[in-house]
Amino acid sequence: MKLSEYKNYIINKYGETGWKDYKSTYAYYIYSLTEEGQKRKLQEDGEVIRLIKNPSEEMQLIAVKQNSGVIRYIENPTEKVQMEAVIRNPSVIYDINNPCEKAQILAVKQDPYVIIDIKNPCEKALQEAIRKVDFYFYGMHLLKHLENDLKEE
């Protein structure tokens, strides 16, 4: 749908005043900015990424540098963006759908316990977590990621 179609919908449903009110929202303000303006806003508040359609990799990097947790709002972040977010806070790995191998390994190197909630961790990240966990009791959280080949009773 195009903005002009949405505008017509709002005007038909709520009148010109509705459109005027809509144009005064923060979301519309961000939407209306140039890319450079959006980048400036991202430097102030990474959460603005939620309001930007198809943000460039540069915009994504600005956002996660400002607030690593906003990676949850980025669809398919690039490897570079994932790495930047994880460097700043390894627990954001939970918020990345299908994190790349490098990001998984980096997160686990910083905090081996993040392996607990990584869906389908790669083998290298799992091995890194096993090496880093400092007490076998804490290793019980790793069991869900291990194939049982012992066949013990």
Key phrases:
mainly alpha, single chain, 153 residues, 7 helices
Describe the structure.
- The protein is mostly helical.
- The chain has seven helices and no strands.
- The protein has helices at 3-23, 26-32, 35-44, 57-66, 79-88, 101-110, 123-132.
- The longest helix has 21 residues, at 3-23.
- The chain is elongated and about 75 Å long.
Question: What share of residues are in beta strands?
Answer: under 5%
Low-pLDDT sequence parts: none
N/C terminus separation: 60 Å
DSSP summary, beta strand count: 0
SSE topology string:
HHHHHHH
Radius of gyration, whole Å: 21 Å
What does the largest sheet look like? none
Structural class: mainly alpha
In short:
This protein is mainly α and 153 residues long. The chain has helices at residues 3-23, 26-32, 35-44, 57-66, 79-88, 101-110, 123-132.
Q: Helices, strands, pairings?
A:
Blueprint: H1 3-23, H2 26-32, H3 35-44, H4 57-66, H5 79-88, H6 101-110, H7 123-132
